[in-house]
Every structure is written in C-alpha cells, then in structure tokens.
Amino acid sequence: MGTRTADMMRFWRTHASRLITLFLLLPALAGFFGLFFYPMLLTVILSFRPEGQAIGWTLENYTRFLADPDGRWVILLTFILSLGGTALSVLLSVPLALILREKVRGHRFYRLMVLVPLVVPGLIGALGLLLFWGTRGWFNLFLLQFVPFVQRPVAVNYTMHGLIMFYVWLYFPYTCITTLSSLESLDRSIEEAGEVSGATRWQVLRHIVLPLITPGILAGSVLTFMAAFGAFSVPLIAGGNYRPLAVEIYKQISVPIPARWSAASAIAIVMGVLQVIFLSLYMRFVRRAGGTGGPS
C-alpha cells in the first residue's frame, strides 16, 4: 500500500505541471473548437455539398464561381481595393508618423484622432463618410461655395476611388501605429551619427531611418491589408455596384430565395485560401526585408 502511494505521489510530482497546464488550457481549447474550428469545418463541408442537399459531394460550387467572369472580377476587385487602401495607408502613415514623432504642438490630440477610426463601428463610419462626401455633403458644399472653377459636385460615393478612400480612413491606423512605434523606438544617435558624417536630412531619412523602420511599416501594412480584404460594412453601405468577396458572400445568403449556403461557403473558402496565400508570401517578404533592412 505504501509503495503504491509513493508511486502515485511520484507520478503526480512528475506530471503535475503538465496536468495543470492542460487544465488551464481547456477553456481556450473549447473556445477555439467552438468558435473557430467547428464553424470552419462546417463551412468546408458545406462548400462541397450540392446546393440544398444534405448528402453528396461536388466541386460545382467552386467551378461555378471561379469560371464565372463576375466571380473573377469580384476577386480582382477585392485585391484592388485592399492593395490600394494598403498602399495609400503607408503613404499617409509614414509622413504623419514622422511629424508626430517630433512632439509637435497638440500631438496628443492628433494621436487620438488617428485612433478614432478604430473605435468607431464600421457601419456608423460608412454612414458618416457617405454624408460627408455626398453630393450635398460638407465636402461638395465647400467646393461649390469657395472654389470658383468647380461647377458641379465631385462624385465620391459609390465609386471605386471613393471606396478606396473609405478603406484608407478606416484601416490606416494599423499602419500608422506600428510605423510610429518603430520610429519612436529608433535611437536618434544613429541619425545624429549620419548627420555628423555629412549626410543631409533627406539622406538620413532615405538611407537610415526608412530601412530601419521598414519591418514596422510592413507589419502594419499586413494588418491593414487583412482588415481591408475582409471589409464588409463599408463596401456594403458605400460600395454601390462594387461588391468585394465579403459582400458577395452576404449576397449569396440574403438575395436569392432560397439562400445559397453552399455557394456562399465555397466563396468563403476561396476568400480564406487567398488570404492565407497572400499572407504567406507577404510575410516572407517582410522577413526578408527585416533581415536585410538597415543603413546602406
């Protein structure tokens, strides 16, 4: 009896930490399975089901979408909007981060304004943008009242360039925050050394600062791209005829009667695969840039 008790105590001492760790992870594992794995598995299975049937397997849902010119246009449109919004976010974030880094007057207020799009719900933001940029919105009223050569309202709403502008407003904080963090963590003595060596401020920025903060810019642009790629509220409200993948999925389950759940599931899987492929390629580029970035 004593030997058995001693063996049990030895087993408990050996495996106690593992058991405790497993016990603490159970809620997270249950949440992962219930909130992500099971819905994803169900979506994958449903994407291979014939429409409206509970049994059978087919690739028709994928082939119909990918063979349809409209389906390929939706994919291309999603990339155009996401890449356009990401590129403009980077172009806006870098100079803004350089300005905020200098602690200009009111910089705390400006930093707060950068974070506003993150705390405003996408639906409310889309409605506000529609009102501001509309033909009778503040922007066009200002142009018509104070710019002599403007004779008619500028079309922004329900256009591709307008939608990209909305994407930039909503998602550029991801890039701006990471860029600003990279800048503020940069040792200024490196820049001072470049200036002492005879480099101009532009040369210091071009050959020292930008290479060193490139990993931060790219990391933020990844977040911006992924958020823009899956955007739903803004294109649903302000996209007009421009409907990216997320809105197309919603369309499949809301417009037809009965709803086309299998088709929507196939589009969702295509969307997820494209995101994973692009993210893998992009992260490889980010790692390469991070490994080679530095003063030249």
Overall description:
With 296 residues, this protein is an all-alpha fold. It has one domain (57-291): MetI-like fold, CATH 1.10.3720.10. It has helices at residues 2-47, 60-67, 69-101, 107-119, 122-133, 138-146, 160-184, 188-196, 201-229, 233-238, 245-254, 261-292. Residues 292-296 have low confidence and may be disordered.
Features:
296 residues, mainly alpha, MetI-like fold, 78% helix, 0% strand
SSE topology sketch:
Layout: H1 2-47, H2 60-67, H3 69-101, H4 107-119, H5 122-133, H6 138-146, H7 160-184, H8 188-196, H9 201-229, H10 233-238, H11 245-254, H12 261-292
Helix pairs in contact: 1-12, 2-3, 3-7, 3-9, 4-7, 7-9, 8-9, 9-12, 11-12
Instruction: Give the proportion of residues in helices.
Output: over 70%
**What is the string of SSEs from the N terminus onward?**
HHHHHHHHHHHH
**Quaternary state of the chains:** single chain
| Helical stretch tally | 12
Per CATH, which architecture?
A: Orthogonal Bundle
Mean of all residue-level pLDDT scores: 84
Number of strands: 0
The name CATH uses for the topology is MetI-like fold
- Quick one: CATH superfamily? MetI-like
Q: What Rg, in angstroms, do the CA atoms define?
A: 26 Å
Structural class: mainly alpha
- Anisotropy-based shape: flat
Briefly, what CATH class?
Mainly Alpha
Q: Biggest β-sheet, characterized?
A: none
Number of domains: 1
